[in-house]
Amino acid sequence: MFFLVCFDIVDNKTRYRVVKTLKGYGTRVQKSVFECANMTEHKFMKMKSDLEDLIDHGEDTIRYYPLCRSCVRNVEFSGIGMLPYVKPFAVL
């Protein structure tokens, strides 16, 4: 599974903790956007739980956008950066 994770965090200390947590799960592609590739359902639920424990649910927001493999292949961008890497499927 591939997720694009975007956040808007009011408090600087909380934002730092969210960024630190997300660095353990994905790649930062913009200041408040991470690409999290090759996630299992268990890993995604753990990440979401870790993040929800950090935020103020009355002021902050985190959005999780799942992207299918073909959608990730069609990602486009302008400026600096790299296309996301998605691990190939194993052939059985």
TrEMBL record:
A single GO BP: defense response to virus
E.C. number(s) listed in UniProt: 3.1.-.-
Record bears the keyword Disulfide bond: no
Binding sites annotated in the UniProt record for Mg(2+): D8
Cofactor(s) needed for function: Mg(2+)
EC main group: hydrolase
GO MF annotation terms: hydrolase activity; metal ion binding; RNA endonuclease activity
Keyword Ribosomal protein tagged: no
InterPro entries: CRISPR_associated_Cas2, Virulence_VapD/CRISPR_Cas2
UniProt keywords, alphabetically: Antiviral defense, Endonuclease, Hydrolase, Magnesium, Metal-binding, Nuclease
Family: Belongs to the CRISPR-associated endoribonuclease Cas2 protein family.
Reported function: CRISPR (clustered regularly interspaced short palindromic repeat), is an adaptive immune system that provides protection against mobile genetic elements (viruses, transposable elements and conjugative plasmids). CRISPR clusters contain sequences complementary to antecedent mobile elements and target invading nucleic acids. CRISPR clusters are transcribed and processed into CRISPR RNA (crRNA). Functions as a ssRNA-specific endoribonuclease. Involved in the integration of spacer DNA into the CRISPR cassette.
Assembly and interaction partners: Homodimer, forms a heterotetramer with a Cas1 homodimer.
Protein name as it appears in the record: CRISPR-associated endoribonuclease Cas2
Lineage: Bacteria, Pseudomonadati, Thermodesulfobacteriota, Desulfobacteria, Desulfobacterales
